[in-house]
Amino acid sequence: MQISQRLILMYFLQFFVWGSWLITIANYWFGTQNWEGTQFGLVFGTMGIASLFMPTLTGILADRWVHAEKLYGVLHILYAGVLFYLPQVTNPTTFIYIMLLAMCFYMPTIALSNSISFTALKLNNKNIIKDYPPIRVWGTIGFIVAMWITNLSGNKATSYQFYIAAIAALVLGFYAFTLPKCKPERLANENASLMETLGLASFKLFANYKMALFFIFSMFLGGALQLTNAYGDVYLDEFKRFPEYADSFVVKYSTIIMSISQISETLFILAIPFFLKRFGIKQVMLMSMFAWVLRFGLFAYGNPTDGLWMIIMSCVVYGMAFDFFNISGSLFVETNTDSKNRSSGQGLFMMMTNGIGAILGSFVSGWAIDRYFTHDGLRDWHTIWLTFAGYALIIAIAFAFLFKHKHDRNVLLEAKH
After folding, report:
1. Structural domains of the chain, ranges and CATH numbers in brackets
2. How far apart are CA 413 and CA 54, in angstroms?
3. How far apart are CA 398 and CA 364, in angstroms?
């Protein structure tokens, strides 16, 4: 099997085990378990808490002591074990703690999968800017397949969504041990300094103005991502409260509608090489930020009947909003770090987006929605989405003025070296 095919299978399963429950867990929380809404933000907050330290910690281990592919496999096996146990939990507080444990095992595998892919592609003399996106797109396909299986099998609000993810994670865990070997840099450099040995050299990236700003804005955009993950499916499902929308396709198959976002991702991922080469990272990230404005703005005015086109367009622009930030961002980190700090640099990116950013998005938005936008048990989604759109617009304007980056096509062309 060619290296591209092996990485495709890895990415398919990597996001299948997340997509099986990420978008539908709100229905499980509010519908099946009937737990309080004020605590739900903590579920997505666990991803942020885990991402504060686990990606960086595992990145250090992969850079210094442990083969990345082996660490990756062990983490997925542990993640599977926790998911098998999760449906047995009947207390919301305990559920949050168990979910935190699951996220401690899963979140660092996102950064590790990037490091494994970049290492394998370079060892096979591939250009990561050109060859990586067509491989990474299969992760999004895996996410879509998982969403459709969960919805069409009638499990979007049941515990079986966790079992589906657990089985796939177990398969991926064992498969990981067959992936190309990613040798720790320390094994090749026994004269490394103490700072390098501990993997702390990657934090020097914050001393660089451009990289520091990149990580800060990554944090704010990470918050935007958590807003749509946490509340997108619930927003569509709650149209059932209105008689004129109760029997609509959008309400019955809300997860299918949301999956349009991931289908859109597959197209925009494949477009990344062109856009990065033509416009550079700053313009691509600005496109992402304005796409977030459209994502939330269209949601604010959409509905399942005459406003259905707005909901669909919101899902379409999500592909640009997500990919032009997450995928391009990981490539930017890759081309601005050296081999000694590659895994830990990806870990820092994860920490800022899915760590601090996720906490910002989950906790602050959860508190704001319950405090200001919920009346008599009903959420004012129109105002909620307009507020989020304003948040994204402020970030975009600030980024345009503060982030300085000179686009150099030669850097991208030489990215395989």
Report:
1. 3-184+196-413 (1.20.1250.20)
2. 32
3. 20
